[in-house]
Each structure stands twice: as structure tokens, then as C-alpha cells.
Specification:
alpha/beta; 6 helices
Amino acid sequence: MDVLYHFRNKWPLFKGAGSSTLIITGMEQYFQSLKRPGPWYREFLAAQLRKGMLSPQFEQDYLSVHVRLGDFARPATDTNKLVQNNVGTPLEWYAEIIRFVKAANLNLAIVLSSDGSDDELAPLLRIPGVERTTARNALDELFIMSRSRGIVGSRSTFSSWGAFLGATPLLLIEGGNAYPPHADVWEDTSDRERKAWLTAVLTGSQSTKTRS
């Protein structure tokens, strides 16, 4: 089903867009039709919002962990690879990555975004230093993710939007569709890939090759 978006902005948001009416159909090519860097769209969206829709920005640098649970099938608990789309990432994988980051002794807070309940997320919330966001709405959650130094994400479009809007390095479990938002996407296939993602988190450097 086609969706019409009307913008009163003189800058076209999409390649080939010459008017203020945009027709967006499905998910073909994902983010490739968006001609400007992700942070530009984030600031454009922020300028359209009513006061109070977004939380104050965090003062400390932080890592974002996004766990999508609500509408995803539950994975096998002992897997470190997904073999199909729309399946949740095991919580143990997130816990393993959090431990990996904490072992590097970085001065990064760890902020958890999720549609799951606190009970479902208990294995992660019990890890010292992990705190859940108090996002005011779904867009606020995306903005919080986008302003992080790096995202440990689900293989979902929500994680991808957060990464796109902030041009933020994204680490994902192996397998399934990554809905690639930009070139800085790493699959957790080896220690080398984890370390490359972490280097991008620390330096803000961008890769020259799509990883996923």
C-alpha cells in the first residue's frame, strides 16, 4: 500500500524527489533512496516535533543495546546465529557483547532499549551498569539510539533506523536480514569483527566496505 508523506520543506528528502509529495512503497532498497546523511534526517524530524516529545540528551557517552522482543519469534537460547528473519536475538548474545565491552574498561554507560518487559529483560538488567531508557515514545527511543557511540542491535528495521539516523556503528548477531542502514554494520562472526566494530565505536571512524 502506498503511503503519501507531505513535507513543506524546500529540500527534497529522496533522490529524484522534485516536489513536496513523496510516495513510499514497501521496503525495497531500504535506505538507499535517502540522499542525505542520516543525522540530517534526524535533525529535520526533531524540528517538526512538539515540545516535550524527546527526552533531554544524555551528558555521558553511552552504548545503546536494542532488544526487540514483542512481535519476534523467540530464538533457541543456545544459538549464536539466526537462520531466518523476524526472530529475536538471544539475550545471552547481548550479555556476551556487554561483557566484551565492559572488559575493555571503556568509560561508556550502557543503555537498554526494548519493547520487552523488565522481567523478560532481567538477565541483562542484572548486569552492573546496564540501565533501561525512560524513552517517552518510539521516536524518542530511536533518537536515544542514534545519539549513542555504538549500537548492539537486533536484526530489525528499528535497530537499523537508529543506526541510520545517527550514522552509528552497528553490531548484529550473524544471520538473517540486517536491513543495512550504512556501511558501518558488523556481523558478530569472529573476535576480529567485534574488535573492528569496537574500534569504530571508540574512534568514530567509518568503514569503506559494507559488512552485512
